[in-house]
Amino acid sequence: MFKNILSIIVLSVVVASCDPSEAGHTELGPLPDADYTMSYIDSNTVDLTSTSTGDPFLYSWEVDGVGTFTGENVQVFIGSMGVYDIKHTVFNQGGSDSATGQVEIYKDGPPPCVGAVEWLTECSERTWKLAPQAGALWVGSDDGQQWWAIDGNGATDRPCTFNDEWTFKANGDMVYNSNGDFWGEPIFGFSPEGCFPESDLQGTQSAWQSGTHGFEIIPANATSPDQLKLVGTGAFLGLHKVANNMEISQPISSITYDIISMTEINGDRYMEVQIDYGPGLWRFTLYSES
To answer: What is the rounded distance in angstroms from the CA atom of residue 255 to the CA atom of residue 229?
Structure first.
């Protein structure tokens, strides 16, 4: 009997010692309240700032089709025009809360400054000219047989060709400067061929005068190298008359060149571009001084 009573007392003590008390509970606290503000830094970059309350310790942003970002304040670049969903989520000790919204981008942004874009622009702007060297203008067959190439006196013999300047900018602009003259050829009405004042380009041919155009880089794939596409009526590299699969007598809206080499010598950059004009290939070697 005594042993049974003692057992009951011991069991009661053990049970009482394991019973949690209200004082030992940990309160997680209330959930946070998510909110944010948005402003445009420029036409393709938005500033997102959390105004959430409830002492969040983690801030997350999801911009649909763009990416996920963390931080109380983030700047997000959105390269293509359109409407994008935003989801902002914050976390505190009590849990999480989200706020949603949208941002509208009204224009396509500049290409990212990597690869051939960096080479052309140095992420700012860079000016290119035909390299003053033999072979800077070259034409030949698909198998590499040379039909004609300019010799080392090209810059003297064709000053109005070798003083042309193409300035590529990181925002996607290409500014052409003829420096007041151009190389005229019979194919577009100038005979004998030679240097003429830029003002002689009249009517639709005036699009070949100095001006601003656009450019795009088409990334390499299994069958093609990186390509440089000039966009805008009258945009060209090297010679006016050379276009894709043809020679032309009037400006056209775009021309695409294969980039077949990019080299740097003592800080000067060299780029060789090639275009299939139908009967064969034209190659142009351009350079940009450091």
So the answer is: 6
Using CB atoms within 10 A of its CB, is residue 116 exposed (0-12), middle (13-18) or buried (19+)?
buried
Which residue in 191, 195, 199, 166 sits closest to 182, CA to CA?
195
Helix ranges, the chain (H): 2-18, 115-121, 154-157, 159-162
- CB-CB contact of 177 with 140 (8 Å): no
Read off the pLDDT of residues 165-224 as tens digits, 9 standing for 90 and up: 999 999 899 999 999 999 999 999 999 999 999 999 999 999 999 999 999 999 999 999
Centre a 10 Å sphere on the Cβ of residue 155 and count the other Cβ atoms it contains: 17
* CATH fold for the domain made of 36-105: Immunoglobulin-like (2.60.40)
Omega prior to 279 cis, within 30 of 0: no
Q: How far apart are CA 53 and CA 281, in angstroms?
A: 65
80 token code pair: 């293509």
Whether the Cβ atoms of residue 277 and residue 253 lie closer than 8 Å to each other: no
Whether the full predicted model's pTM is greater than 0.85, yes or no, is no
Q: Label residue 23 by pLDDT band (50, 70, 90).
A: low
Residue ranges of the domains in the chain? Answer: 36-105, 115-288
Please give the structure tokens belonging to residue 19: 């019973």
Stretch 131-156: mean pLDDT: 97
